Amino acid sequence: MNLDLNDKVVCITGASGGIGLALVRAFLDEGAIVCAMYHRNLTALDALRSELSTAQQSQLNPYQLDLQDNNSHKSAISAICSAHQRIDILVNCAGSALEKPFLLLTPEEIAQQVTTNFSQQALFTQQVAKIMLTQRKGSIVNVSSLLAKRLGRGVAVYAAAKAAIDRFTQTLALEVGKKGIRVNSVNPGLIATKMSKNIQANMPPDLMNMSPIARPGKPEEIANAVLFLASDRAASYITGVCLSVDGGLSI
Amino acid sequence: MTQNEEIIEQIKRIIQQSCGIDPKVMHAKSTIFDELSIDSIDMVDILFQLERHYDIELKISEIEQQSKLEMGDEPFEVNQVITSKGLEVLRRRMPEIDPDKLTEGLTMFEVIKLINIQSLANMVTHQLAKK
What we know:
The structure holds 2 protein chains of 2 kinds. By secondary structure, chain A is α/β, with parallel strands linked by helices. Chain A contains 9 helices and 7 strands; from the N terminus they run βαβααβαβαβαβαααβ. A 7-stranded parallel beta sheet of chain A has the order 3-2-1-4-5-6-7, sandwiched between helices. In chain A, helix 1 (18-29) packs across helix 9 (219-230), helix 4 runs parallel beside helix 5 (107-135) and helix 5 (107-135) packs parallel to helix 6 (156-176). The radius of gyration of chain A is 17 Å and the shape is globular. Chain B has a two-stranded antiparallel sheet. In chain B, helix 1 (3-19) crosses helix 2 (40-54), helix 1 crosses helix 6 and helix 3 crosses helix 4 (84-93). At the A-B interface, helix 5 of A face helix 2 of B.
């Protein structure tokens, strides 16, 4: 199926992370113009660029974004709109999990986990949704987590923030649907990335064998689900969905 | 056509574009939320479009903020209910609203429900004057 993502302007936060890079690659393969938002690590995006064709290289546009700074949100969005005149798709992929027993978390760590994994996404989404409102069109996909629904020992606050993302997805979908904006999320299970290694350390050792598809997921498998939800052709009647992409772990 | 009439016509055009409401059924005194059944996201859309059209900033919350500022240390509301003095200020600041509707026991949420097309026009005029 043609997802009709060719030349769509896609803004991806957390683009230099494990799933983020797979997202960048997947959207480029579909012919999209990718605005890859990174904070400090441009190296990973540069490495990806070296693997791309010349045509794809011209479609990859890295933008520096400090999600903790609202002014950085505004200047990044303004730069994207100046260059491309619109934002068709937003993928909120930035986030970080702090693996630590809940009773040992400091107040700062608790606040940081909520901010990094929920508040900053909401604030950035607010800015982008304003653009989408004027366009009368847009698709937002949040990268949530299996932990929003089950498991999560050692990552209580991270899991709670991801659960907040799920409800944010659903309630925002209610609010902006009539203006042509769809909002969905994917809930990755155990994915072979650097970030999920620590989380997996606290999970039952036989967890993989308990799942119907008895292996960890690949970042590309999350990216494919995001492509589907982002596409107005493939998912035109889908909004407010939190799609588990976890090999059946959440069953 | 006066400036006020022009602004009202512009607001009607924007509401028609945003919500598909026939301008013929809209009047300066039509309340946005109750009579025109415009919901919050439509209202946000209308405000954005007015901001872009006139190159101004519009905030509904400014009605409350400006009223509080005018009252100084006197309470504008107690337990979210607007005080008698607060209502006096609102009657003066929002002459487009029937004073009989600004009665004792109102909350700010209920006052917002009374906002009509003329209220929006007044907000636009106020902001244009500041430019």
